[in-house]
Amino acid sequence: xxxxxxxxxxxRRDMRRTHYKITANGLVECTNCGAKIRPHRACPKCGFYKxxxxxxxxxxxxxTEEKKAPKKAKTSKKTEE
Length: 81
Known about the structure:
Elements: H1 10-16, E1 28-29, E2 36-37, E3 48-50, E4 55-57, H2 65-68, H3 77-80
Antiparallel strand pairs: 1-2, 3-4
């Protein structure tokens, strides 16, 4: 089995690993509502997509009543009696 003749130094090891890095995702602003979205995708908030020719609404977005109304506190059976 092949074994290295000498130990690889920390500097040489780290220089080899300089290309293994994570890059941040690029975000752009939605032209309709101004939310931060990934490029070339429909906006999840308003459903608009800015294509090459025109902007258009791709999907309907739903606003649920649960988000608007406050949640009710749970009551136990003992307090009702």
